[in-house]
Amino acid sequence: MTGLSLERTIELPDMVAYAGATWDWHRLHYDSAWLAERGLPAPVVDGQLFGALLAEMVLDWAGPGAELTALSFRFKSLVHAGETVRCTGRVVGTDGDLVSIECGVEVVGERARVAVAPAAAEVRRP
């Protein structure tokens, strides 16, 4: 079985749409002038967005009718608008229709680094 993977560049319009959907309007996620005063180079991606990306990756892999039953993750570093992240996963166990997956999120490109680790998901496949 091959590993799971999802790659996405997160741009400021994506972050604003996510903020609107979640009602999280903290200036950290959109206000470049406010961020510059604090020494940050660009808006910071809302950490919960990584949960949404991990869920998307796992459910796309698991297929129609699958149910995400658990998801946990821990932030390791900030990710800024315009950076590309790669979510990865690998199956580490099965128990009947329940599949356990070890996951991670890394920033790819010039400033490569781990963004989220460790992460884990459980999915029930039909």
TrEMBL record:
Species in which this protein is naturally found: Nocardioides agri
Pfam families in the record: MaoC_dehydratas (PF01575)
Family, similarity comment: Belongs to the enoyl-CoA hydratase/isomerase family.
Signal peptide: none
Protein name per the record: MaoC-like domain-containing protein
Domain MaoC-like: 6-95
Highest classification ranks of the organism: Bacteria, Bacillati, Actinomycetota, Actinomycetes, Propionibacteriales
